[in-house]
Amino acid sequence: MLAAIMDGTLEPGERLNDDELTKWLGVSRTPVREAIARLADWGLVDMEPNRYTRIAEADEKVYAEADQYLGGLHSLALEWSAGRLSTAQKKTVAKSLSDAEKAIKNEDPAGVLALLDAYGETVLASGNDLFIAAELPLRTRVKFLTPKDAGKIDWTGVAVSADRLKRAVS
Which of 14, 17, 55, 44 minimizes the C-alpha distance to 33? Predict the structure, then answer.
């Protein structure tokens, strides 16, 4: 379900029906309900008991708050992972960052998503399981809420963030 939300198969505002989802996914109702509950915790699904369950809508205020919070976590990740990145992790971050920078130069929103994942690698390098478990749902939420319209993205801020990560892993 997460992949279907992230790739747009399940669209913002779309209502979710347990019976339809169990047929589509080929699983019983229990894992569907558990997935929906987790996705609701991650901010990707809105639920109102006995009324609706639907894919969350884009919300600029929620995006701004989540992005700011994630930026703080990523700053902490750079601090905590300093000197702890293995050669393989540095290569992974460098590759993700290179891909992100190409898209960022073209003001392609996919570059923002790739940059967030590159920062996610530094979170993994922190070695702090609680930190890792807290960052992933937030990063997923920010990726989900990232504007699809390139004109709504602060490209200067994104470029600064990419440069900061590049310096940290060099």
Answer: 17
Q: What is the pLDDT, as a whole number, of residue 85?
A: 85
Model confidence over 39-55: pLDDT tens digits? 999 999 999 988 999 99
Mean pLDDT of 61-87: 92
- CB 107 within 8 Å of CB 20: no
Give the integer Cα–Cα distance in Å for 115 and 119.
6
Give the list of residues 6+ apart from residue 122 with CB closer than 8 angstroms, or none.
74, 77, 78, 81, 85, 93, 165, 168, 169
Write the burial class of residue 34 (CB in 10 Å: 0-12 exposed, 13-18 middle, 19+ buried). exposed
* Domains of the chain: residue spans and CATH: 2-55 (1.10.10.10), 60-169 (1.20.120)
Tell me the pLDDT tens digit for each residue of 54-67. Answer: 999 999 999 999 99
Any residues with CB less than 8 A from the CB of 31 and at least 6 apart, and which?
25
